[in-house]
Structure formats: structure tokens, C-alpha cells
Amino acid sequence: MATFDDAVEREGTWWSTDTLPSWPTAAPLQAANGGRFDGVYVREPDDVPPGRYIIIDRVREGRVPIETQLSMPGRQQHHHLMAIISWTPKEDTQALRLQALERGITDVLARLRGPLLDKTHGAQFTDVGIDGDMIEIDWGAADPFEVFAEGGPARVALRYIAVDTLYL
Question: Per residue in 42-100, pLDDT tens?
Fold first, then answer.
């Protein structure tokens, strides 16, 4: 049974599993499979090496009002999750660095949105990125141009909701 404590691991499995870039799946994320990222972490490690990574973590657990739950066939759990992009620049100019980061964000959004007819992230959840009607992209307080000028990785967080329906 799906539970609160394994939501991040289930989501991490979805992000770590690359498929061939064919319809209706999203393009691979990991460099070993032709993507832009060096790897995927489930929960942030103590020390992220330089490179381009996706880190999956939890922001908070959402509650569903009792009135809504009574009208549903099962009880829902809303997992407010976050995909953090840690992006070390490899390009020569600031403009190319930002453009590459934006392409990386586009790839992550495509994976987050899921294939055309499957919003369950490989049957890991009831739906992902649909409830709450938005995916929030947080660039953080630091300007990416300044971060890149200092040689550090930029960090961008994509926050979204994954829903479990527990049938009692």
C-alpha cells in the first residue's frame, strides 16, 4: 500500500528511469542515456558534487477537506513534492549558460507532466502535477547570472503535488 513515508522513493524511481525518446514518453534525463543531467538523487545528499542533477524531496504533506473526502470513493493523500535542479554551468557565455539551464528545466517539466495519457508516473500515484492546477518554478533568491559568474551551481525548485488514493 502506498504510504507517506515511501512517496519520495516512488517518485524518485520515476525520475531515475529513462526510456528511449519515443512517443508518448518524455526524453531521457540522464546523460548516460542522452539527457542533460548527470544523475538523480532521492533526497538531498550531504554533498552534491559539481554537475547537473535532479534531487527529489518532499516539501510538505497536504490535507484534503473532509467534505471532499466524503464525496470520493477513497481517501486521498496529497504529497507536495519538489524536484530541485542543481545546475553547474559548462557553457562559455552567460547567455548560453542560462539558455542551457532553461532547456534543462523544459526537460524536467516534460518528465513531470508525464506521457500523453498517463499522469500517474508509471502507476506510482493516482495523478501527479495535476491537482492544485499548477507546477511552481522557484528560481530562488539568487540571480542565476550572479551564481554562474561566481562559478557555482544554480538551483531551481519545481514544486508540484502527487496524489495517492487509498481505497478502504
Answer: 888 888 788 898 888 876 766 666 666 666 666 677 778 889 999 988 888 888 988 99
Instruction: Identify the CATH number of the domain in which residue 80 sits.
Output: 3.30.2000.30
In degrees rounded to 5, what are phi and psi of residue 3?
-135, 170
Global confidence as pTM: 0.80
Count of other CB atoms within 10 angstroms of residue 168:
5
- Return the C-alpha torsion angle 8, 11, 16, 17, nearest 10: 150
Asked if residues 149 and 143 have their Cβ atoms less than 8 Å apart, the reply is: no
Q: Tell me, what amino acid is at 53?
A: Y
> Whole-angstrom Cα distance, residue 125 to residue 168?
16
Q: Which residue has the cell 516539501?
A: 59
- What is the domain range of residue 54? 4-166
User: What are the C-alpha distances in Å from 139 to residues 65, 67, 75, 108?
Assistant: 31, 35, 34, 14
